[in-house]
Amino acid sequence: MIREYKDTDIDKLIDIWFEGSLQAHDFIDSAYWESQIKEMKDKYIPMSETYVMTEQTKIIGFVSMVEDYLAALFIDVAYQNNGAGKELLKFVKRQRNEIQLKVYKENFSAIRFYEKNEFIIKKELTDESTNKQEYLMGWTKDTNN
Length: 145
Known about the structure:
This protein is of the alpha+beta class. It has helices spanning 10-24, 30-47, 84-93, 108-116; strands at residues 2-4, 49-55, 58-66, 69-75, 98-104, 120-126, 133-140. A four-stranded antiparallel beta sheet has the order 1-2-3-4, sandwiched between helices. Strand 2 and strand 3 (58-66) form a beta hairpin. Helix 1 packs across helix 2 (30-47).
């Protein structure tokens, strides 16, 4: 089930984000992710349009949008590779005509995931906070269907 985020969800979302960030970005020092926890909790998730995916009552993932920008898509490590990310992505695609996101160039599995889900690489950038290369990727709704 996918539902709107509630304030009481924040600690679980931060846990999923932090563990997922450590796993997906082993090329970035874990201290960087630790330094981002407070801002994620106090600023980024509250300012985003966030939806959570649950299995029974357990939160297993979430997606956060800021207008047409996909700011976060994270699935609990124990529930990855079971289609939850694809379902959350399909959910936000139904609400928008286009979506952009940034993904680290070294995060090969995320790049493959987004490419399989109709995103294309638009340009290469450098993330100022980590000095790592990243791709700006985009998806546009096919208006012929």
